[in-house]
Amino acid sequence: MAFEYAPAPESRGNVDIAPSYGLFIDGEFTEAADGKVFKTVSPSTEEVLSEVAQAGSEDVDRAVKAARRAFEKWSALPGSERAKYLFRIARIIQERSRELAVLETLDNGKPIKETRDADLPLVAAHFFYYAGWADKLDHAGFGPSPRPLGVAGQVIPWNFPLLMLAWKIAPALATGNTVVLKPAETTPLSALFFADICRQAGLPKGVVNILPGYGDTGAAIVAHPDVNKVAFTGSTAVGKEIARTVAGTRKKLTLELGGKGANIVFDDAPVDQAVEGIVTGIFFNQGQVCCAGSRLLVQESIHDELLESLKRRLSTLRLGDPLDKNTDIGAINSAEQLARITALTEQGEAEGAERWSPACELPSSGYWFAPTLFTNVTQAHTVARDEIFGPVLSVLTFRTPEEAVAKANNTPYGLSAGIWTEKGSRILAVANKLRAGVVWSNTFNKFDPTSPFGGYKESGFGREGGRHGLEAYLDV
Amino acid sequence: MSDRLSVFKTYKLYVGGKFPRSESGRVYEVTAKTSAADAAGQGKWLANAPLSSRKDARDAVVAARKAFGAWSGATAYNRGQVLYRVAEMLEGRRGQFVHEVADAEGLSKSKAAAQVDAAIDRWVWYAGWTDKIAQVVGGGNPVAGPFFNLSSPEPTGVVAVLAPQESSFLGLVSVIAPVIATGNTAVVVASEKFPLPALSLGEVLATSDVPGGVVNVLSGRTAEIAAPLAAHQDVNAIDLAGADDVLAKELEIAAADNLKRILRPQPVDNADWSATPGTERLTAFLETKTVWHPTGSLGASGSSY
Questions:
Q1: Which of B287, B290, B294 sits opposite A442 (nearest CB)?
Q2: Angle between helices B245-255 and A236-246 (to 10 degrees)
Q3: Structural domain containing residue A303
């Protein structure tokens, strides 16, 4: 018998979205110089949430100038004063976390249980963590009185809008830089709400500037001659373009790019826990996660048993209204992303991989994609090689630990990996051989502000989080 | 003293632990630096050095990749011993290098000796770093949850090193030692005008327990050899010390294709290398790996461990 869940929607009443938003430059909301605007929609309903000013190159120049002006005083503040601003921001985020969680779910499409229990707590924690560093930089291992770089140009993606903002802004401000940040075009709202938080915190004007826009806005920020630091999270293709743009300049660059993480399950792994980890690894945030465990490498001897458990578990996932507190799988962020997932999965089928999804009714409006498994996948298949950035898991098998490692590393990416086994020495041996920046053993998709995050190879370079994350914003 | 005819040395490349000529069969003339005629190439003829081709560069990358597994997998203690052994071997051949550096850079014997002494000491300095850098830049992270969380540095992989153009030996050693100390393997492009000390260093490395392929030394036109290295898909990083601004930009653009780690030209590259370096050249070619594992919580209800 099937248990029916009554709807349990989170209220939208505590978030007040204005019909339009400006750019946030030099402490003020302002229209774009050329008057351009774009609409942001809720991916679960296609409802227009607001109309947002679209920054052009003139606006970028204005914002960089404001950040440059603010830099002198901000970098000269005692670290203890900068720390207090960041602590204020952290506190205000905590106070407004319910509002921000609902906002993020509306604008992004991810389930409220994720924004409420993962995104927002991590955002606040990140500001708390870097707040504490601001007056302790002498002790961070970069020599005495390490200097900030200047104006940081930051471009962030739509999958964790506010969390990515926190990863970028918190260390930049703690170290004494000022920032010009572009949120993604499909998820600009939480960054604009953050601008309001900066105002509430009394942050000096110009220290944080928020410029919503598309790729050309980001490109203008990256190419601006008075930007000293570029930080980008997004696709590997764009990351490479940015690396070419900053070549020959003195701009410091950190890139956090794509991934095709291997989640390796050995025959002695506790199956139920592994299944939960696999589900977390690829269906958290609809798989729109750069460090997703999108390749399941399962030891051949337990393949059938594991797949049976996994399919049973997937059949219990609830897809639907992201604001419903029981929802596991929310909406895909945009029509464009949905089209990409659809195209790649069709290619997977065409190339001969076997496709499976649980019975799953998709809402009639909005952008939706059912959880999907591919079995009989080979390493040559597109679904095993390309980052899909959606709720799509490719299952491959292996016989020996050596084969697992070879397959796991057989990708130009190197962001994350998972290992499931009860044998401690095997965990350490395999973790040692994996060319990936984050290895989760007997767990997956865990994040913490103290824990450095970032990739090997074409998943980018530089680390965010922890003591390591300071280096990206210091002249060392 | 009789006028004994001296025996010249045929300088060769050092690739995969062997001493091949350039596959292209090409050589170029290396002359001594003199105060007057340096630029015109009218200094005293010293030797013919191999003029490496792009094929030589690719062969060197293959050798460096092949050596990476064992070298990066060696214990840090072992790598330290090997680097120290390089210093020991150099000490024994000090006279030869003083001579070569003096000729190359147009230095007096005493100034050349100071360069060589500093270079030997630099090997010792970096030898001591192999088993310390992980403790300095890695460590446990106090995450807010029941997890053990450890960040450790790992070598980036195959590193192309464009040796400084002016400091033919101290500069050279100062860019090679930090790369291999942490477990990377290197393809080194020697100073274009002063390649002989670098080619002789290959002979020292071959007798210092440095496994073949860990360091590969190429001589020739820096721009010609560097271009295929910067574009090579199996090179993980590049040190641009020996590139001028124009070349450095071109190489950085080419290197973006597989997102190589880049160490841009530094102020020290064409200056005095005698100051004790920091850790920057070590950390430039390290990746940070962070491993998580649940700790469980003994005695807590609901604990599965």
A1: B294
A2: 180
A3: 262-441
